Amino acid sequence: MTTVLGWAGADDDSPLRLAAAVALASAEPLVVASVVPPDPDAPIVSRVDREYRAWRDTTVRERQEAAVGALRSLGVDEVRGTVVRATSEPAGLVDAVRREDAGLLVLGAAAAAPTGRFSAGSVAERLLHSSPVPLALAPRDCGPVGPPSRLTCAWAGTARSAEALTWTRRLARRWGVPVRLVTFAPERAAMLPSETGLRIEQTVSEEWATQAQGRLDDVVGAWEGDPPETVVARGAGWAGALAAVPWASGDLLVVGSSRLGPLARVFLGSTASRILRHSPVPVVVVPAGAGGAPTRG
To answer: To the nearest 5 percent, what fractions of the chain are helix, strand and coil?
Structure first.
């Protein structure tokens, strides 16, 4: 599975470390892709324009060389850079993915994202609605990214989570790591501020968690091979539910997405968006249609 890292140069090396971990686990090439605007089709180019292009090309080349060097220092041998000319960075990265026949696109968080969490910048936001391949999203300043040791799939019993699980299982077999299934059960504040209201909310939450565990048990019952660990993660709101899951270095969380239009592209629903915002580990968002092919091998 060739991996493409979208890279414009940043003070956060989390996406570099995530891309290295994925490439080493896959034993496949890693391509660092940078996007620059196409040169205008003008018969005469001013001196200022020539100087700007020279500065831009030098800057991009230096950033690529630095990224490739950093990835090699992390143990990635089969890595190279590529520069794509496109009218927008998202379009250029999609072009790079198609040119390289990549199976995964790695992106970093916005500069304003909280430490240890992912928040989409303008490029990631666009790609969350247009990428033809799964996106691996690194939380900002997330610390050391260990070799992938477990794939945790968010399970909701829907078609999109089933497709994400298919993708997860295939990649887990390729990497030789276990799968874990998690159903998130965020608990809302009681609508009725009385003791009776709190008991009602607690009863509803417990009944829902029991049903969720039953659905997870159904999946495990039909599982071929070693059964996966299952977790019903209950907590106050989405932050509490994500925090209720025991996370470890090397964990990746996989979520499914919906289909946008006639193409297999990502359309992130509200649940997946909340998971992404509160996850303390890297998240892979799998677009509809990608469930059968996480790798070429």
So the answer is: 40, 20, 40
User: Is pLDDT of 53 > 80?
Assistant: yes
Write the CATH number of the domain with boundaries 1-39+51-147.
3.40.50.620
- Kindly tell me the burial class for residue 275, based on how many C-beta atoms sit within 10 Å of its own C-beta (0-12, 13-18, 19 or more): buried
Note the pLDDT of residue 264. Answer: 40
Q: What class does CATH assign to 148-281?
A: alpha beta
Q: What local confidence, expressed as pLDDT, does residue 144 receive? A: 75
Report the candidate in 215, 279, 203 with the shortest Cα–Cα distance to residue 241.
279
Q: Do domains 1-39+51-147 and 148-281 have the same CATH topology?
A: yes
- Rounded to the nearest integer, the mean pLDDT of the chain is 87
Instruction: Report domain extents, the chain.
Output: 1-39+51-147, 148-281
